[in-house]
Design brief:
Distance between the termini: 37 Å
Strand order of the largest sheet: 1-2
InterPro entries: Sec1-like
Structural class: mainly alpha
Helix content: 40-55%
Protein name: SCFD2 protein
Organism: Nycticryphes semicollaris
């Protein structure tokens, strides 16, 4: 979008987490990093310099965190960047922040944002990190219950040639979910009216079923499909996200996180872990509303990020040991572990 540019090629860049020898010291230099990470930092600096050259920018860098300081220092001393800063006409402040300092933000569910939900729950477009597959079967005469149907090519979110779709995507990113869904209905009604499709405008709350009934009007009209293909892909992404089981789980996550923020303190950590314990169920015991192993890992990352440093004591260690046992058993019982669990094991 106009305000946000993602650089997925740099997605793997992460400071090594503290090992048994203790945390990574604040004054890490590039030379102290492993060879692979050194190469990644140089690649980031080269990419950023290319981006700033294209924008005609001379930057003033600020860094929060050990790895960010290394990146900022490398960028400051990079030969090509020094030349660019002498000639560039625009000024910008650049703030680097270590991702490890904001893990709670990355795994939390506080955003009431449709774009975030779509990107979280729909399957990734193969070969892409920042786009998703939108099932397009609804728009065809081929009606199949098979969700993995691969005869029809998937749709996606990137619609650079469709002004209505671009405008709708901006509202998915910038408005609250309820308003964004209303925008989806408005765009759909306008498109149907332009194509003289028999649309009945209804007021009140927008439901995925209502959006779906509007989409069906386009199904047998090839000209209308072609004219509004980008918009239809975004609205289908909305419908599929709102109906997705993970979306209803989103509210459970949010409720748990709020409860956690209210109750958490050093003394309460064992009792919070004991509350979690009965919720960890193996594959055979789980219903669709229960948390998966991945969900628990996300919750645990959130809990420990919010609490920060905890003094080890017997009650905490006992509670942690029980959670570990239950999680290991659940992970071992997974018939088809998702990629993240495969990586961990």
């Amino acid at each position: 979008s106009a305000e946000l540019c993602l650089l997925p090629a740099l997605g793997e860049l992460l400071l090594p987490l503290p090992g048994p020898s203790g945390p990574v010291t604040a004054e890490v230099g590039l030379g102290a990093l492993p060879a692979e990470l050194r190469a990644a930092v140089r690649a980031v600096v080269g990419d950023l310099d290319g981006l700033f050259t294209a924008l005609g920018v001379r930057e003033e860098s600020f860094a929060v965190g050990a790895l960010s300081r290394v990146v900022a220092a490398e960028l400051a001393s990079y030969a090509s960047a020094r030349n660019r800063r002498r000639t560039a006409t625009n000024k910008a402040s650049v703030v680097f922040v270590d991702r490890t300092l904001d893990l709670a933000g990355a795994v939390g569910h506080h955003g009431d944002n449709l774009a975030e939900k779509i990107l979280s729950v729909l399957p990734k477009l193969p070969g892409h990190k920042t786009d998703v597959m939108v099932n397009m079967v609804e728009l065809t005469a081929l009606q199949t219950a098979d969700e993995t149907c691969s005869i029809i090519a998937p749709g996606c979110l990137a619609q650079p040639n469709d002004p209505a779709a671009k405008a709708l995507w901006e509202s998915f990113m910038n408005l609250k979910q309820k308003e964004a869904v209303m925008e989806a209905r408005r765009h759909l009604v306008e498109a149907a009216s332009r194509e003289n499709l028999p649309i009945k405008m209804s007021m009140g709350e927008v439901t995925p079923e209502q959006l779906n009934s509007y989409i069906q009007l386009f199904r047998n009209n090839l000209k209308a499909l072609e004219n509004h293909c980008g918009l239809l892909q975004l609205v289908l992404a909305t419908v599929q996200t709102l109906k997705h089981p993970q979306t209803s789980k989103w509210d459970n996550f949010l409720a748990f996180e709020r409860l956690l923020l209210q109750t958490i303190g050093e003394s309460e950590m064992p009792s919070v872990l004991n509350q979690l314990l009965p919720m960890i169920k193996s594959y055979k015991e789980r219903t669709k509303d229960d948390y998966t192993c991945e969900d628990f890992l996300i919750l645990l990352v959130y809990m420990y990020s919010v609490v920060g440093e905890i003094k080890s004591e017997n009650e905490l260690e006992a509670a942690e040991e029980e959670v570990k046992k239950a999680l290991v058993k659940a992970i071992c019982d997974e018939p088809e572990p998702p990629p993240v669990l495969q990586k961990i094991t």
